[in-house]
Amino acid sequence: MKKSDVIAHFGSVSATAEALGITTQAVSLWADTVPMGRQWQIENITGGALRADTSKVKPLVANTQRV
User: Fold this and answer.
1) Which of 8, 16, 33, 54 sits at 20 to 30 Å (Cα–Cα) from 65?
2) pLDDT tens column, 17-60
């Protein structure tokens, strides 16, 4: 999920911050890609209009080795 898409959806940095319950400074600190935790929150808030990009999420693998 790109930061620019999120800001465009909400209309401004301040509206984005308000919708997420964070500061405008926090939004400004995002790189081009929104942090994964925020992506899930945004997907939830937008009812799926913006979707979390799970292509870069690595699955958790249980440690099956015994010591």
Assistant:
1) 54
2) 999 999 999 999 999 999 999 999 999 999 999 999 988 777 77
- CA distances (Å), 23 to each of 9, 11, 28, 35, in order? 17, 15, 9, 15
What structural domains does the chain harbor?
3-52 (1.10.260.40)
pTM of the model: 0.81
Cβ(24)–Cβ(17) under 8 Å? yes
